[in-house]
From TrEMBL, chain A:
HAMAP family associated with the record: Malonate_deCO2ase_dsu
Highest taxon listed in the record's lineage: Bacteria
Cellular component aspect of the GO annotation: cytoplasm
Organism: Tunturiibacter gelidiferens
Name the record gives this protein: Malonate decarboxylase acyl carrier protein
Automatic annotation (TrEMBL), chain B:
Domain of life: Bacteria
One family name in Pfam for this protein: MdcE
GO biological process, one term: carbohydrate metabolic process
The protein's name: Biotin-independent malonate decarboxylase gamma subunit
Organism: Tunturiibacter gelidiferens
UniProtKB/TrEMBL annotation, chain C:
Record SUPFAM superfamilies: ClpP/crotonase (SSF52096)
EC number: 4.1.1.87
This protein's name: Malonate decarboxylase beta subunit
Lineage: Bacteria, Pseudomonadati, Acidobacteriota, Terriglobia, Terriglobales
Keyword Transferase: yes
Stored Gene3D superfamilies: 2-enoyl-CoA Hydratase, Chain A, domain 1
Keywords tagged on the record: Lyase, Transferase
All copies of domain CoA carboxyltransferase N-terminal, residue ranges: 1-251
Coiled-coil segments: none
Keyword presence, Oxidoreductase: no
GO biological process, one term: malonyl-CoA biosynthetic process
GO MF terms held by the record: acetyl-CoA carboxylase activity; carboxy-lyase activity; transferase activity
Pfam families: Carboxyl_trans
Organism: Tunturiibacter gelidiferens
Enzyme superclass (EC): lyase
Length: 98, 277, 289
């Protein structure tokens, strides 16, 4: 198991809602997305699969190139592929932007 | 080890009650009798091996259909007999526990062993809630569904402190297979993670035990050891009578405050949110 | 339109089994009356899984929802079968016990509060072994306290089924609702095959598994109460009926003599035929929807 953190200080848009999607089942993950009390966005990942820090970094760099909300994102992961990670993140964004 | 399951239970049943035969109409695998403890009489119950049981999957000391319904019958009889007595006069119920597991058999599943086990757990819990002190003495193995059926509803749990005691959700070999670890890894992990441990001294850290007891050779108790165990049972009975009827003592104990922080956090948060409408 | 009614019913029904635990629990409540307690944002996770290199889940796979069912106060506690097989850990178990205790507290104070347990579980979580087993004993105790005042209703819908220690919780329930896709038993077929050999139980024999553990059999032999189609509306209706029925005069686990005599009458010289047993124990009160 590995814990990974990222900061995206440029993401400053005020967010008021929160979202929870997904289950920590095999090949899947859960995302909790909530307003950050400070400026910028922070990401906290707990994953059962070690050694994929760069892949996570790439996914979140891509995600925050389009999304600018000041949020805290918590992820519990049981081996989701980068594709399903992005899908879960998009589902979470859909909930808070409704 | 497995050849010994049930022998320690039987030895202690005999030492404490003077009897080691089952009642007429009961299967040979269930011993019950009324015997003195302290200055009162108590109901003692024990599940033992019956090599000739008509249910093949209980012959090594597992708890099956007949065992569960027989235990429930005797416990409920005492509840009914003492129904109108005040709490201090309700008879203590002493479960001597040395059970390999629940029965792993097709006959048992077909006839609903889950329900038989529930019936026995209900009887023990009902006795406790009616004010009977229910005391478990873990004299050997207390595994999984076997312990849930016989002993785990007690107000107070006593156990011996030696390597022959195992209280667990699953035996080592099966747990190793399912969690994809070697038995050696599992044993090592047990010392770091108390709920995983097969060592009764780690189990004691969970806050579920009233007291650990000692006997040099638990299969052959000396008269001093028997007297010591009687004293511990009497003490457990007195403590149970002073306490609440529920199982809250298990997570309110000092040891639980250290090891069951998760339980306590959940209970506090849920209570706060429940009444906040 | 001349589409046969049966087919349109089948197409229009909303599968309950396909819902996750949270959506299942929500689907039982009256619109706009419910809220989740100690949800994912409280982030009370298993303290034991991470120590063993396993990612936890923010609700530990147990969802607690409080609200009204058919106008009556109720709490639903649902195990998520997709997380660690719906297993009982310290936190998930404590959630169920605490919710049952609070429902009992309200009920004793005159506000009868039913509990609905949605059980998709293989039993105790082996990574939390002894605290999982202890939690099961505590859940049983708390369910027994509540059921004196308000009904405790278990739903086993599938596809995990309800096995291990939690099957005793189903056993002590006031009412058990099952689908044909659900299974209920103490030991699953794989466990029996492993412990007692393939001659005792061939876990690849699907027909045998369903004949013994399946919902139709359990309701037919009287160890569960309602057999309901995999349809969220029908399951919600069955739950409302059970809430309204209230506490039964006598719970099944109090009928020790009846069942002890039935076990005494079994011929154990060979395996017991499930269909014959169902006829012998036939459950005239079983409801089929």
């Amino acid at each position: 198991m590995e814990k990974i953190e990222f900061n995206y200080p440029e993401a400053k848009r005020l967010i008021t809602k929160r979202a929870h999607v997904g289950v920590v089942g095999s090949g899947d993950m859960e995302v909790l997305l909530e307003p950050n009390s400070e400026e910028g966005a922070r990401v906290f990942i707990t994953t059962s699969v070690n050694g994929f820090g760069n892949a996570w970094k790439a996914v979140f760099d891509r995600f925050f190139s389009k999304f600018d909300g000041a949020v805290r994102i918590y992820i519990n992961d049981a081996g989701a592929t980068p594709g399903s990670v992005l899908l879960r993140l998009e589902q979470a964004v859909e909930v808070i932007e409704q | 080890m497995s050849e010994q399951v049930g022998l320690r239970g039987k030895a202690w049943f005999k030492a404490l009650t003077g009897s080691d035969t089952s009642n007429n109409g009961d299967p040979n695998s269930v011993l019950t009798t009324t015997a003195a403890v302290g200055n009162e009489s108590a109901l003692f119950l024990c599940v033992v091996r019956d090599k000739d049981s008509r249910f093949p999957c209980v012959r090594d000391g597992q708890v099956g259909l007949e065992e569960a319904f027989t235990l429930a019958t005797h416990v409920r009889a005492v509840i009914a007999e003492d129904r109108d007595k005040p709490r201090p006069a309700k008879r203590p119920i002493i479960a001597i526990v040395d059970v390999k597991s629940q029965a792993y058999g097709r006959r048992e599943e077909t006839a609903g062993i889950f329900f038989a086990a529930a019936t026995s757990a209900d009887a023990y819990a009902s006795a406790r809630m009616a004010g009977h002190p229910v005391i478990s003495l873990v004299a050997g193995h207390a595994f999984s569904g076997g312990f849930l059926t016989h002993g785990y509803q007690a107000n107070r749990i006593l156990a011996f402190d030696d390597a022959g005691i195992t209280i667990h959700a699953m035996h080592k070999e099966a747990a190793a297979r399912i969690t994809r670890r070697s038995v050696a890894e599992l044993e090592k992990l047990g010392h770091e993670i108390a709920p995983m441990s097969y060592d009764v001294r780690d189990y004691a850290k969970l806050g579920l035990l009233f007291k650990l007891l000692h006997a040099d050779d638990p299969r052959h108790p000396t008269s001093n050891e028997v007297a010591e165990v009687r004293r511990a049972i009497t003490e457990a009975i007195a403590d149970a009578r002073k306490g609440k009827l529920d199982l809250n003592n298990r997570w309110e104990s000092d040891a639980a405050k250290e090891t069951r922080k998760g339980t306590l956090a959940v209970r506090a948060a849920l209570e706060a949110q429940w009444f906040n409408e | 339109m001349n589409t046969p009614v049966l087919i349109s019913d089948f197409v229009n029904r909303k599968s309950f089994i396909e819902l996750d635990a949270r959506a299942r629990a929500q689907s039982l409540f009256d619109e706009g009356t419910y809220k989740e307690l100690v949800g994912p944002f409280d982030r009370i996770e298993s303290p034991w899984l991470a120590k063993q290199g396993i990612a936890p889940q923010s609700d530990d796979g147990c969802i607690v929802i409080k609200g009204k069912i058919g106008g009556s106060p109720a709490v639903a506690i649902a195990f998520e079968g997709a997380f660690q097989g719906g297993s009982v850990g310290e936190v998930s178990g404590a959630k169920m016990t605490a919710a049952l205790d609070l429902a009992a507290k309200d009920s004793e104070a005159g506000k009868s509060t039913a509990a609905v347990l949605l059980l998709e579980t293989g039993g105790v979580r082996l990574q939390e072994a002894n605290l999982g087993l202890a939690a099961v004993a505590e859940i049983i105790s708390s369910a027994l306290v509540l059921r004196r005042h308000a009904p405790v209703i278990t739903i086993v819908a599938g596809t995990v089924g309800c096995f291990g220690g939690m099957s005793l919780v189903a056993g002590v329930s006031s009412y058990t609702i099952m689908t044909r896709e659900a299974r209920l038993g103490l030991n699953g077929p794989e466990v029996i095959e492993q412990e007692s050999g393939i001659d005792e139980f061939d876990s690849s024999d699907r027909a045998l598994i369903w004949a013994i553990h399946g919902g139709e059999q359990r309701v037919g032999m009287g160890l569960a109460d309602s057999l309901v189609e995999d349809d969220a509306d029908k399951i919600a209706a069955a739950v409302r009926d059970s809430v309204h029925k209230g506490v039964p005069d006598k719970h099944r686990t109090e009928q020790v003599e009846l069942y002890r005599a039935r076990i005494a009458a079994l011929d154990t010289s060979s395996q017991i035929d499930p269909a014959t047993l169902r006829q012998q124990w036939a459950n005239p009160k079983g409801v089929v929807r």
